[in-house]
Amino acid sequence: MSLRRRILVVDDEPQIHRFLTAALDAAGYDPIRADTGAAALREIAARAPDAVILDLGLPDLDGREVLTKARAFYAGPVIVLSARHQESEKIDVLDLGADDYLEKPFGVGEFLARLRVALRRGGNAELPDGLVIAGELEIDLPLRTVRRGGVIVRLSPKEFELLARLVAGRGKVITQPQLLTAVWGPAHKNDTQYLRVFVGQLRRKLEAVPAQPRHLVTEPGVGYRFIAEP
Amino acid sequence: MMGSFDRASGFPGRLKPGPYLGSLGLVAAAVLIAQAAQNQFSNATIAMLLLLAVLLSASVFGALPGMLGAGVAGLAYNFFFLAPTGTFAIRHGEDVLAFAVFFAVALITGWLVGRVRQTARQTLERSQAITKLLSASRDLGAAATVEDAASTTALHLSAATDGPTIVLLPGDGGLTLAAGPADLTSLSPSAAAAAERAWTKGELVTGEDWQFSPLEGLGGRVGVVGQRSGARLNLEPIGQALIQQGALAIERATLSMAASENLALRRARDLQVALLNSVSHDFRTPLATVLGSSTTLLKYDASLKPSVRRDLLESIAEEAKRLNRYVGDLLDMGRVEGRALTPKREATDARVVCEAALSRLDTRGRQIVRRYADRLSLVQVDPILVEQAVLNVLENALAHSPDGAPLSIAVEEDANGVLIAVDDQGCGIPPGDLGRVFEPFHRVEGTGRNSSGLGLSIARGFIEAVGGRIAAVSPLTAVGGSRFLMSFPKQRSTPAEFL
User: Most A CBs within 10 Å: which of B275, B296, B303, as the mutation test of the A interface?
Assistant: First the structure.
C-alpha cells in the first residue's frame, strides 16, 4: 500500500498523543490528532480518517454524543479508549456502534493489533460471504456448515446463528444485548443466561480446551468476540 | 449545734431533748427577770415578758418546744405572779380571765411561730435542692463524653449525700467502674454481684457495703449508681432526680458519641470513594503514557527518529515524576486523615522555611517576588511539615495563574503570630468554592487537571498539626488574584513597640 492510512486520535491528554503519534507513525500510519469532541467531529468530517481512536471522558462532549454524531456521516472503524471506572459508557458506545475498546493503560502492541483488526473489517459489520478459517475450524457461513479438523460439527440452529454473529464481527467485541437481540429477538435483550449456556455449548464443540477458549473469547461484563488467529 | 436542733424539728418523730431544754431555759430566764422586778412591773407587763420568751423559743427551737414553753410559762405566770402567789389557785375572777387569755395567747404564739419557722426551713431546703439540681443539670448538660457524664453524676450525688458515690457502666466484660472516689479502683466480689443484680433486675439492691440503683435512660438502662449502704438520699426526691438526670446525661452522651462516630465513619467512607476515584482518574493517564511510550520504544526502537525517541523517554520520566507526586500526596493525605502526624517543635525561622520550599519549586520560568521582614520572631513548628505546606501552596498558585505572571511570597509578623502570604495573579477563586478549596479532591471547575486535588488539603492538615492556620482570600483586586495566608502563633506575644 503506497498511501499511508490516516488515523485520527481523539484525546485531551497531550502525553497520550505523544506516544500514539510516534507509534502510529513508526507502524506506517498517518496519525492526526484532536483534543476535544468538537475538534474530532470537524476532523472526521474534513479529513475522513481510515479509523478513529476515541478517548472517553473528553472535557467538552460525552463519548456517546461524539459517537452518535460521528456515525451520522462516518462509517469507518472506531476504537474507544476507556478507564476502569467507565464501564457503562464503554458498553453504551459499543452498542452505539464503536468497533472495539481498549482499557487504559495498554501496550502499543495490543493497540496496533486491535487497530489492524478494525481496519481489516473496514467498519463493515455485514456477514462475510464464503469460508472463514480459524485454526482447525472451517466455518462456511452461506452453507451453514462447520468443520473441525475436517470433520463436520453438528450445531443447532441457534448455536449456528450465534457463531455466525460472532464470526461476522471478525475480532470485534459484540455486546451481550447485540447478540441476544440478533439471535433471540429484542424481547430477550437482557437474558444473558442464554448466552452463557449457548457459548458454553459452542466451546465444548469447537474449542480444543473449552475452559481456555482461543476463538470464542469472553469480554467480562461486555460481551464476546471471535478471534480467528489468536 | 444548730444542725442537730434543725434536724430535730425537721423530723418530729425523733425526740431530742436540746430544743425543749432551751425553751424551758428561756422561759425560766424570763420568770427570773420578772421575779426580780416584780415590784416595778404590773402583771400585764410580766405577761408580755413571758410571751416574749415563748415567742423566742418557738421561733428558735420550733413549734413543739415553743408550745412546751407556752405551757410552762402559763403555769409559772399563775404560780408566781397571780394572787395568791406561790399556789396554782387564782383569787380574783378577773385574773382567771387574764390567765386564760395569757395561756391561749402563749400556746397559739408558740404554735404559729413554730409553724412559720418550719415552713421557712422547708422552703430553704427545697430551694437548696433546686439549686443543687440546677447546678447538676448544668454540669451534666456540659458533659461531652460518657466518662464526663458518669463522673459528673458521681460528683453531684456524693456532694448531695455527703458520702462516696460510684457509677458503673456496661463494658465489654460486664459492668465496669466508670466514676467514683480516686482511691477506689475495684469493688469487692459481693458488691460487684450486687451491682450486677441491680443492672439485670433494674431495682434497688442493697449489698454489704454498697447499695446500687439502676440508671434508667429513656431508651433503656444505661448503668448503675452505687452509694454507701445506709445513705438515704436516693430515697428522697433530690437523690431520685439526680440519679434520673445522670442517667439521661449518660444516655445522651452515648448517643452523641455514636452520632459523631457515624459522622467520622461517613467522612472516612467519602474520602475512600474520593481516593479510589482519584487513583482511577489521576493514575490512568500517567500509567498509560509510561506503558504506551515504553512499549513504543521497545517495538520500534530502530525505526524511531532520535528526536522522537528522546521525546518518548522524556515523557516517561515526566509521567513517572507525576505519579510519584500523586503517591506522595496520597500518603501525606493518609497521614493527615489518619491523625498519624507527630510534628516536632523547634524554633524555626519562617523565611528559611520559605526559601527551602522555593528551592524545591519548579517555577517554570516564573518570577517570584520575595518580601521578607528584616527582623522576625522564631516560631515553634515542625519546619519539614511547614516547608511542604508552603510548597503545596506555591504549586497551587503556579497552577492557577497564567504563564508568565509573577508570584509573590511575603513573611512578616504581628503581635501574636508570624504570617506567610502567597499571592498569585490568577483569575481568583469563585465565591462558592472559597470555603471548599481545602477539602480533599476538590478542584475548582475547569482547572488543575494535572494536580491531585490534595495539595491544599495537605497544606491545611500540616499547618493545623503544628498549631497554625491557613485561609484563602480572593479576589484580591478587581481582576482576580488569590492570597493564601498562613499564620503560626508565637509562644509569647511581642509588645507593639518591638514590632
Answer: B296
| Cβ(B38)–Cβ(B81) below 8 Å | yes
The residue range of the domain holding A138 is 131-226
| B285 → closest Cβ in A15, A84, A109 | A15
pLDDT in the model for residue B5? 40
Residues B244 and B214: their CA atoms lie apart, in Å, by 9
Residues A109 and A176 both lie in one domain: no
Q: Give chain B positions within 8 Å (CB) of A109.
A: 295, 299
The verdict on residue A126 lying in a domain is no
Confidence of residue A8 (pLDDT cuts 50, 70, 90): very high
Q: Are strands B368-372 and B407-413 parallel, antiparallel or unpaired?
A: parallel
User: Are A162 and A202 members of one domain?
Assistant: yes
Confidence (pLDDT) at B417 = 92
For residue A1, is it within any domain?
no
- Smallest Cβ–Cβ distance between A85 and the set B280, B285, B288 belongs to B280
Query: What pLDDT score does B10 carry?
Result: 42
Which pTM does this prediction carry? 0.55
d(CA B160, CA B232): 11
Q: Does residue A37 share a domain with residue A105?
A: yes
Residue B232, judged by CB atoms within 10 A of its CB (0-12, 13-18, 19+), counts as: exposed
> Is B450's pLDDT higher than 70?
no
d(CA A111, CA A127): 25
A25 touches chain B (CB under 8 A): yes
Q: Which helix (H) or strand (E) holds A224?
A: strand A223-226
Q: Are residues A112 and A144 in the same domain?
A: no
- ipTM of this predicted complex? 0.71
Q: For the domain that residue A198 is a member of, what is the CATH number?
A: 1.10.10.10
**Do A157 and A212 have their domain in common?**
yes
Choosing from A121, A151, A183, the residue where a domain stops is: A121
CB contact under 8 Å between B286 and A15, yes or no, is yes
Share of residues in chain A with pLDDT > 90 (%): 43
B290 neighbourhood in chain A, CB within 8 Å: 105
The pairing of strands A216-219 and A223-226 is antiparallel
Buried b (16+ CB within 10 A) or exposed e, A10-23: bbbbebbbbbbbbb
Show residues of chain B in contact with A105, CB under 8 Å.
Answer: 284, 287-292
What's the total number of domains in chain A? 2
CA angle (B147 as vertex; B143, B148 as ends), nearest 5: 25
Chain B residues within 8 A of A107 when measuring between CB atoms: 291-292, 295
Instruction: Choose, out of A19, A21, A90, the residue to mutate when testing the contact with B (most B CBs < 10 Å).
Output: A19
Distance from CA of A92 to the nearest CA of B (A): 20
Residue A165 shares a structural domain with residue A86: no
Of the listed ranges A81-85, B129-133, B325-329, B371-375, the least confidently predicted one is: A81-85
Query: Are residues A110 and A142 part of one domain?
Result: no
B266/B471: higher pLDDT: B471
Chain B residues touching chain A at CB-CB below 8 Å: 277, 280-281, 284-293, 295-296, 299-300, 303-304, 308, 311-312, 315, 318-319
* A116 interfaces chain B, CB cutoff of 8 Å: no
Which of A121, A140, A168 corresponds to the end of one domain? A121
Domain co-membership, A114 together with A140: no
Asked if residues A90 and A82 have their Cβ atoms less than 8 Å apart, the reply is yes
A139 part of a folded domain = yes
Please report, for the domain that includes residue A115, its CATH number. Answer: 3.40.50.2300
At B111-152, the pLDDT tens digits run 888 888 888 888 888 888 888 888 888 888 888 888 888 888
How many pairs of residues across A and B have Cβ atoms under 8 Å apart?
77
